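Many introductory courses stop at the sequence. We go one step further.
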Amino acid sequence: MKLLHRHILKSLPGPFLAAFGTLLFLLLMQFLINYLPELVGRGLPLLVIAELITYSLAYMVVLAVPMAVLVATLLVFARLAETQAYAVAKSAGISLLGLGWPVLIVAVFVSGGMMYFNNVVLPEANYRMKGLWQDIRQKKPGFELESGVFYDGIQGYAIRVAHAPAESNALREVLVFDDSDAGQRATITAERGELEAGGTDALVMLLSDGEIHRLSSIRDEGERTQRYERIAFKQHRLRLDLSDLGWERSDAERTTRSDRTMQTSQMIRLVDSLDANAASRIAELRTQLGALGWRDDDRPQSQSGRSDSTGAADDDLEQVIGAMQPIQPVKRNAGNVDIAQALLAAQQADSSASTPLASADSVAADSVSDDSPQRAVLASLDPIDRRAVYDLAAQRMRTVKSTLDGAQNSLDWERQRADRYRVEIYKKFSMAVACIIFVLIGIPLGLSVRRGGLGVVGVLAVGIFLFYWVTLVQGEKLADRGLLEPWVGMWAANVLIGSLGLYLLRRESLDPASRDPLKRLFARFRRSA
């Protein structure tokens, strides 16, 4: 038994490293194909390009490790089935779980390492890569003249040449617009030109047989006038400052962090802060509504069954407002008309504030009973004051509705932002646990492949990983839009593939090989091939 376990463990590193290296190479080639055009022609140091590629390897590792675990598991157990080692072990009474538990232990350790990598190393690498990309994209391209095209990469100059051979520094029909000096604007034309090095951060353009047309501003007897100059030359040296084209690294801390560049501990603190802000905002709105004559007797229950005191951030503001019950106004002394009491009565008479008031009397008759205190208060007012009361009530209700709509939008935005961070948190853990999930499904599938070879293993691995990745990406999109709970969107792929793996493990352990549909399927596939 120990010899068999030792043989399995010794067989794992080879296929794992081969698959990991191949996947990493393919992902790196994809990265270079997509982003190499942005790097070429900018005069970047090689160390900067190497640093960018190193940072980009972080997200490639996250994708390559789980798939390499799947490929290695499929290959190792396919070899066990092909060499009849599994049949011998099964005939000796060794269960499938007893045979495969060392691989599961290895997968647990790999998953733990990936959790640390995903939660700590990956966000920091993404953060540094984001800052480096910003510096690269802000850098101007290197000095390179093209025939018939204006070059304006140097501040204050626009240069055009009719012919610029790539194999030499000779130029023909040069046109330069010089706006480097605000007081003197010049246009330089030359039949020929030649580029010479002028130091580390400078370039000299030696022009021959040309003219300088210059418009300068001078002060004459206290008044500023403009003077036009035309200068013909045989040779003219134009020195161009290339210091702006040099590579500069900015402060690493100037780049803001997002959900992809924050560590999990930072995101958890931020989510707690957003939930606390949402809860305090709802409490503040309750207070404001209570001051308008509402009370909150029964706290609404959230969809998850939590009370509002523990899950206020998850309650819908419309539920909170809907649970507010109107307070009956306090009776005043008869003969002492209180305008505030009349206003409250008018608010109850026209709480929607969506239709114009035809008349104060008709609204009061439809909304308030004859024997109610509100009716007595409104009846004591003359028609003009009654109309003023209703207009003021409608205006206040519109203001309250606008305030509540703004609060609802703010709460929705905060919850969506918190959900995006929750999605990223669950995603980091789910992709690490995928190493264990792929072992669970790789063991029975590998035993079913037998003589399928590397081609069948590759097709199986690509198919399973594509299904996992598509499910994960779609779950992330739905969770970001609020259509799914974040944990559902991020763990759905693991649950589906893990459930299938457990079913196949149980079937492989209990059913005879002749009744296994997977073995019949692979046998048919081999015969057709």
